[in-house]
Amino acid sequence: MWFLKSENQIFNFLSTTKDFLIGLIFPKICLSCGVSGFSLCPKCQGKIKILKTDICIYCGKISPRGKICQNCRRKSSLTGVIVAAKYSGIIKKSIHQLKYDGNTELLQPLGKILIKKFSDSRISGQIIATSVPLHLTRKNTRGFNQSELLGKYMAKEVGVRYEELLKRIKSTESQIKFHRYERIDNLKGAFKAETKNLSGKKIILVDDVCTSGATLEACAKELRRAGAREVWGLVLAHGN
Question: What is the pTM of this model?
């Protein structure tokens, strides 16, 4: 590699060569239609329907921007939950591949869906974006936190500040096997705000999937204790 003049050039050359060889051995195919060259092709991206009608995630009543309705508000620390799509079909497959198969090439198409929904919500003002944290053990096992990656991507593209505002201090069992109130108990004491100086702030809390809302609620409670004025959940998909 005599033609490369610096360590930087050598590193970039080796990295590009590695990616090229991996592409030859394991060619990218669209997870939905099987066309080559994409992890999720533009045509299939276009088939993902962004929700036009927003609801209160607790009772299902129509509510602009997914705001927690008046009846449910007294039992929630969330201002609302902005949901991009239903957890089914292409988006469910995409989230699963990102989360469990480590296909981070799906970050961009999924991130764009999140950005579109956030932009449509027209939430403005002094916003800080953050994400639902993983316990360090799980993050080390997986190698990344998909919610953190999505949150940082969204924040950068829309021009809002991103900060790690929460820490997961308790490793909890998977929420899948629990009912809603069991999920709330399972998450007690799981999160801690990294700062107590959020007085008057508006927080956008990013996660990949929302089912009962218990995880977002537990995080929102801590952010409110730290002084946050509004806490909005922003999720790719809602459903079981």
Answer: 0.85
